[in-house]
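Trying the structure run again after the queue cleared.
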Amino acid sequence: MSEANWYVIHTYSGYENKVKANIEKTVGNRHLEDQILDVRVPIEDVQETKNGLTRMVQRKMFPGYVLVNMVMNDETWYVVRNTRGVTGFVGPGSKPVPLSPEEMWPLGIGEGKEAPASPKPKIVVDFEVGDTVVVIAGAWEGTEGAVTGVNAQKQTVTISVELFGRATPVEISFAEVKKR
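Done. Tokens:
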């Protein structure tokens, strides 16, 4: 018997949880529990700040995609591919490509080697270039400045503060500023 691997399937946007439920139901009905082992919709915790209120929310990491741990054969391919809401497997042509353990680690599903430490939750902010913010922590605490740049990748904001009579750009973490 072949080895089970993780595969990515593309779904209609917003149908991820419905596709997961449909695949799990079909697996139970057809007694394929030994061939389709797990179905997941990866989610992440995100710190969201809107209108000065900060809260933790869960978001889909990959909207429009579902992960399936399965033994690839004609029957399992057919079951997954013909599930309502599935548009296909991710891979060239009709050949699904399995994910490597290294690709699974960031999702908390890595096997074998020691997985790296999980990252801090992402912070989503509601301010943009031109808004005025106040620094609430760190060396610049109490400083007010205009937003000149937002870097979502690094989770930082660049603000223009007055230092020695000149406008000076300062890069600060999202967690250390709030909208005024």
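The radius of gyration is 22 Å. Worth checking whether this holds up in the mutant runs.
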